[in-house]
Every structure is written in C-alpha cells, then in structure tokens.
C-alpha cells in the first residue's frame, strides 16, 4: 500500500508540513493526484486534490484534518492515487481492500499519525464560524485565546489506541456509560427520540467509506422497496438499523457518519457496540487484515459460538 511513501509518526506528533509536501511530490511520480487537505479561510482545513508540485505547496496537515479521505477511493478504482491518511483512515483503506473495492497496488499511502482531531463544529458553536484555530498537538488557541485542548477532542479520538492519552478503547463513546445504565424500554425510547430528528439527508451514508454500494443502496431502491420516503422517526429508525447491520464487521470506527450528521444523532454509539460484540464473538476488528473477510460474510453456522455451549 505504498508504505514506503510515508510512515506513522510517534503518538502525539504532528508531521512537519515541509516533509508532508515532499512526500506528496514524491507520490506524484506514480500517482495521478494525491488526496489531502488544504488551508481555508474558515479556521479549518478542507479536503483537496494535488496534481503537481505547485499545488502540493498548499498542502497542510493539522488537527482540523478530520475527514476520512478513504471515502473517495471506491470511485477511483481505475486510477493510481496517493492519499494522506491517519491511522483510522488507513484502517478504512485496508477494509476496502478486503472487500475488493481498493487495489492496494494503486494506492500510494502517505501515513501520518495525529495528536487527536479537534471538534471544529463544537468550536464554531462556541466561538463562531471562522474563528482561528492554532494547535501544535499539545496546546490549543482559538480566536487567539488559550483553550483546554482535551475539551475539544472529537469523540473517536478519545478512545483511540494510537493516540497518547487515548483510552485504547475504540468504542469509548461519550454516551456509552449512560446508555448501559438504561433498561431495554429506555433504550428504545432513547433511539426513537434521536431518530425523530433525522431529516433523511443521507450525510451519514455519503461520509462513510464503507457505504459504497450506491446503485443498490436500500435507502433508494424500489425493488425491493425496504424503506419509504417519509421523514419521520419510524422510517429513519428502519433506515439506520438496516445501515448499522450492513456495517456489522465492516465498520473501521472512523466516526465520520456521526461527525457529518447535521442534527447530532449519536450514530457511533450503536455501531461501536456492534463493533465490540463482533470483536468479542469472532476476535475480528475491521481494517486490520486486507486478506480477511468480515465474519458475517464468512459465517459458518455449524461452528458458531453457540454450538460450543
């Protein structure tokens, strides 16, 4: 996967921008373009494509580069591309390769680690759109004022085992303890309340690297007609539960669905729990082995866990 084109930096270390630019230029010797990030005037980086050395001069990598760029790869199968990837993004690439959606020989990886991504939406709610964000990995300044960095770390990074200070628990969702304390009836009410806010914008699907079956997506097929077009909690619940089950054993835990949701539904809470169960039952975690198949795609009922009891 082009691992010679980059390396994972030490935990908590942000790679020098000059070195990143050199890696992008090097990757362009073979790649048609490189997926990465560029600075904007809004206080946060934005995804970008770099086609030559001149464009590579605009490349950045900082704690606002939260997007999982692997979402673009299934649509680029016929191209050789480079990609700047955090460790969670790299797991998505590996899982896409396991499902034959990515040819690793055609992906030139520029691998970087990060000190934890910043929740830009939370910053904008508190300080306004366009507030300047300065972060060196240890201290954070927002609108030229000191801020508590850990307060603005995105949820997925708090449990990241690849980050210094992370809990080492990929399913460490902020609402998990509260959710575990609920009864079954309370949990159903909890989800119905959240799903009632769903506006069916499909931002969760568009941001997810593993939601690549666009032409046959259950959210829009009419034969079979699994889901109607109503914007209500019942339709949203059906849509989300089908999506969660479709991601069983496939979700790499990047958290992009929850980040992209405009109404703040805690989508990763349920997916994290499913990931935990899959790992507990099958010893499988998505995005680790490009040759492995997700358990529910290779499940043998004659040898399942319940037969041993």
Structure description:
- The protein has 309 residues and is of the alpha/beta class.
- Strands 1, 2, 3, 4 and 5 form a five-stranded mixed sheet that branches. Strands 6-7-8 form a three-stranded antiparallel sheet, with no helix packed on it.
- It contains eleven helices and eight strands.
- The chain folds into two domains: 1-167, no CATH class; 176-297, no CATH class.
- The protein has helices at 17-27, 53-56, 87-98, 120-127, 155-158, 176-180, 184-195, 203-207, 233-246, 256-260, 267-282; strands at 33-38, 46-50, 59-60, 81-85, 107-111, 133-135, 140-142, 145-147.
Give the SSE string. HEEHEEHEHEEEHHHHHHH
List segments where confidence is low: pLDDT < 50 over at least 5 consecutive residues: 1-13
Radius of gyration: 20 Å
**How many discrete structural domains?**
2
The coarse overall form would be globular
Proportion of residues in β-strands: 5-15%
The number of distinct β-strands equals 8
Biggest β-sheet strands, sense, barrel: 5 strands, mixed
Q: With helices defined by DSSP (H or I, 4 residues minimum), what is the helix count?
A: 11
Helix and strand composition category: alpha/beta
N- and C-termini, Cα separation: 41 Å
Mean pLDDT: 84
Helix content: 25-40%
């Amino acid at each position: 996967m082009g691992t010679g084109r980059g390396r994972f930096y030490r935990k908590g270390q942000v790679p020098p921008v000059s070195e990143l630019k050199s890696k992008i230029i090097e990757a362009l010797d073979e790649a048609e373009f490189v997926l990465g990030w560029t600075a904007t005037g809004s206080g946060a980086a934005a995804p970008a494509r770099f086609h030559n050395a001149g464009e590579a001069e605009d490349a950045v990598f900082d704690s606002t580069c939260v997007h999982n760029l692997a979402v673009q790869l299934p649509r680029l199968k016929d191209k050789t591309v480079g990609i700047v990837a955090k460790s969670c993004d790299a797991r998505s690439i590996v899982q896409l390769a396991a499902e034959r959606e990515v040819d690793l020989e055609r992906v030139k990886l520029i691998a970087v680690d990060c000190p934890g991504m910043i929740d830009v939406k939370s910053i904008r709610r508190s300080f306004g759109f366009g507030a300047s964000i300065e972060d060196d990995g240890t201290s954070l300044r927002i609108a030229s004022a000191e801020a508590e960095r850990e307060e603005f770390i995105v949820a997925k990074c708090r449990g990241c085992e690849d980050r210094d200070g992370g809990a080492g628990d990929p399913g460490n969702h902020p609402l998990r303890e509260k959710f575990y304390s609920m009864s079954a009836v309370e949990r159903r009410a909890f989800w119905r309340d959240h799903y009632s806010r769903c506006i069916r914008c499909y931002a969760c699907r568009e941001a997810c690297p593993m939601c690549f079956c666009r032409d046959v997506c259950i959210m829009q097929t009419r034969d079979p007609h699994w889901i109607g077009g109503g914007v209500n909690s019942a339709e949203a619940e059906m849509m989300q539960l089908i999506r969660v089950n479709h991601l069983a054993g496939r979700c790499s835990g990047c958290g992009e669905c929850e980040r992209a949701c405009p109404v703040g539904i805690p989508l990763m809470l349920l997916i994290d729990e499913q990931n935990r169960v899959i790992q507990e039952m099958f010893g499988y975690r998505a995005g680790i082995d490009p040759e492995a198949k997700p358990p529910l795609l290779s499940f043998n009922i004659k040898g399942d866990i319940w037969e041993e009891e």
